Amino acid sequence: EESYRGAVRVALEDPRVGGILVIYCHTAITDPGMIARAIIKSYIECRAPKPIAVSFIGGVECNEGLKLLNDVGIPAYPSPDRAASSLGAYYRWARYAELI
């Protein structure tokens, strides 16, 4: 949990990082809900205006974590390709809108 929280915080605070793709793979010793809460906490604490997308890989055991993230407005998906595609769509839109 702390490793995800720390990694998200470092990426959010680094001015060289333009966006974040977080990938979590469920294991028997980790709790997807706790990982989701750690990501949420870092994102809220940093208040960085950076796009973020999260992928939780692990089937139905990850549904709680995905719901927690989506409920606070952090796009979360059950596969990395969908999460990466969402960031790509954001950047295409931002370029079109001349935001970046």
Widest sheet, order of strands:
1-2-3
| Largest β sheet strand count, sense and barrel closure | 3 strands, parallel
Superfamily (CATH H level) name: Succinyl-CoA synthetase domains
CATH classification, class level = Alpha Beta
What's the end-to-end separation, in Å?
32 Å
What is the H/E order?
Answer: HEHEHEH
pLDDT < 50 stretches: none
What is the domain total for the residues?
A: 1
Give the structural class.
alpha/beta
H/I helix tally: 4
Any idea what the CATH architecture is?
A: 3-Layer(aba) Sandwich
- Helical content band: 40-55%
On the 0-100 scale, what is the average pLDDT?
93
At the third CATH level, what is the topology name?
Rossmann fold
The portion of residues forming beta strands comes to 5-15%
GO molecular function: acetate-CoA ligase (ADP-forming) activity
Domain Ligase-CoA: 3-100
InterPro entries: Ligase_CoA_dom, Succinyl-CoA_synth-like
Protein name: Acetyl CoA synthetase
Structure description:
The protein has 100 residues and is α/β, with parallel strands linked by helices. It has one domain (2-96): Rossmann fold (3-Layer(aba) Sandwich). Helix content is 53%, strand content 14%. It contains 4 helices and 3 strands; from the N terminus they run H-E-H-E-H-E-H. It has helices at residues 2-13, 32-46, 63-71, 80-96; strands at 20-25, 52-57, 76-77. Strands 1-2-3 form a 3-stranded parallel β-sheet, with helices on both faces. Strand 2 (52-57), helix 3 (63-71) and strand 3 form a beta-alpha-beta unit. Helix 2 runs parallel beside helix 3. The longest helix has 17 residues, at 80-96. The termini are far apart. The model has no long low-confidence stretch (mean pLDDT 93).
